[in-house]
Amino acid sequence: MASRDAHLARIDGGTFDVLIVGGGINGAVAAASLAGRGASVALVDRGDFGSFTSQESSNLVWGGFKYLEHYELPLVFKLCRSRNRLMKAYPDNIKEIGFLASLDETSPYPPWFAGLGAYGYWGIGQFGTKHPRILRTETIETEEPAINTSSVRGGIEYRDAYLIDNDARFVFSFIRSAIEAGASAANYVELVGAKRHGDQWKAELRDTDSGATYTTTARVIINAAGPFVDALNDGWGTTTDHRIVYSKGIHLVVPRLTTTEHHRVLAFFDDTQRLFYVIPMGRRSVIGTTDTRVEDAVTHVTDEDREFLLAQINSRLDLAEPLTTADIISERCGVRPLVVKRTAGNTDAVEWTSLSRKHAIECDRKRRVVTVFGGKLTDCLNVGEEVADVVQELGVKLEKDLHNWYGEPASATRDEFYRQARLMKLDSLRSKPDTERLTDRLWRRYGRRAFSMLEAIRDDPRMGEDIMKSADYLRVELHFQARTEMITKLEDFMRRRSKIDLVVRKDDIVTSPGLQEVAEILFGDDAERRLQEYLANRP
């Protein structure tokens, strides 16, 4: 993959069919879909790819079981179909997982009624997962002894899916697919302004890292700026029928809370009768999420947020010691960009938690601006296809959609990688307890690109060593990512290309003897500046 500088050189002074503003999940899938069908595409993001809303998700790929409560059956059907497609296209990255929901005396539904909903959800999802179960209290006690069942009336288990690696890395996989299909993409590049000249847009861009400025030209602009779409449209005078409102959600990452062999999500109704979850993340558990209306897209975790979630989980799990803030390893905080009609007037009158994560796509045909409102990871393939349809209606000729712009390599390629890894005894290089097999991890993260890693390890066994004691990353991965994953700042690797910042305590990261080498591999002579920049910006 070309370097960031090479992409910037192509964007500067270039002429494209489409300029995409925003490198979250919506912009990433739009770029992959369009480039995969022959369009010339440029994509920019003023931060790193997937560095705002898209890095703060629950890592779940689900059809929206809770949306049944408000009878949004078409939305649930659409999301479940997308979930099924994603599981089929990404069998090593997206896995089916059970959701065990415990229902106590204060829960809004009895177990039998929730069970009917679970079976209905299974049917709406075209039976794409294992069947649900209605659980007695005694069964919950046996299968998940960590749950406090003193007031539990029973429960259900239904099925959905989750991302094994982090959400931002999944977003980057679409950026990479777009680049492999010929797109130009650059992180840390903001749109300063854009004006329509004849049948084209002329955009002014600025590198937020170096301060350099660029210009580029495109026939169509796609506004995929997530929570910032309205402000962007206002800047160039585009009016829309929809707008965005914000809901803040947080997650707390703590040491793993369950000790059973079952790998599932635990679901509970909190004191406000909203669902929250305990989600597995390797040797960690993720508690969340909350739902708080806010007016600003930039949010932070407050003491009140922490106290609320800790109180909720402590009252619902039978822990040896209650969780405290000292147990929190890391935190995630972001806003959901929720779509409402401008004609809805004052959204204070709308039941806040009833607003779903649906998306809407609008097109200003005269000015050739496409705006993507809302959405979520589960719905990403639908967004990519719908954006391509709209762009084609605007006169950009696209090739037939062969559905090859997403998904993992063919099973035969996977089998060959596993054969080579087995012959070189790759998995014997690991001695850490309770860690994933190297073969599984390298294939899932890098696909075809993992073959070159095997060769590098054969040539130099040091490439197969862990580089940080507190994190599971090989030296060869760092060398590979330095060349191919457009890492501009150390946080890009620590938080988004990997999930080290999420699962390792800050003190363990800072004191790791491998951190300096990580910076040196990624940034060479600029390592010390990037390292100090990262340490200064750590929360």
CATH fold-level topology of the largest domain = D-Amino Acid Oxidase, Chain A, domain 2
Strand content: 15-25%
Unreliable stretches (pLDDT < 50, length at least 5) are none
Chain-averaged pLDDT: 94
Please give the CATH architecture of the largest domain: 2-Layer Sandwich
User: How many strand elements?
Assistant: 18
Percent helix range:
25-40%
According to CATH, what is the class of the largest domain? Answer: Alpha Beta
- Global geometry: globular
Q: Give a quick account of the main beta sheet: strands, pairing sense, barrel closure.
A: 10 strands, mixed
Fourth-level CATH superfamily of the largest domain: D-Amino Acid Oxidase, subunit A, domain 2
Cα radius of gyration in angstroms? 23 Å
**SSE-based structural type:** alpha+beta
What is the distance, rounded to the nearest whole angstrom, between the alpha carbons of the first and last residues? 32 Å
The domain tally reads: 3
> Number of helix segments?
18
